[in-house]
Design a protein that fits this description.
The protein is α+β, with helices and mostly antiparallel strands and about 80 residues long. The chain has a domain of about 35 residues. It has 2 helices and 4 strands, in the order αββββα. The chain starts with a helix and ends with a helix. It binds zinc ion (ZN). The site of zinc ion has 8 residues, from loops.
Length: about 80
């Protein structure tokens, strides 16, 4: 029975440690996103900033929507 007790105590401490770590991580970056994950491109037509994965690419230019791609090509 003592082995189980030790395991339970260890588990409780591990859980407390994990909760503290999660809390500390949240406090460290309040509302701030890590910059390396999202690549931002500027729409050539309206100038809005959009993540590269959500943008429409045309040659070397990026657009926020196909509408702006077409409008820019009509200029
Ligand atoms: Zn746009």
């Amino acid at each position: 029975m003592t082995i189980i007790r030790v395991l339970v105590i260890f588990l409780v401490f591990w859980l407390i440690f994990r909760l503290i770590r999660i809390k500390m991580d949240k406090n460290r970056v309040p509302g701030k996103k890590p910059p390396k994950i999202v690549n931002i491109k500027k729409c050539q037509y309206c100038g809005v900033h959009i993540p590269t994965k959500d943008s429409i690419k045309s040659g070397n230019k990026y657009y926020c929507s196909t509408e702006h791609l077409n409008l820019d090509n009509q200029k």
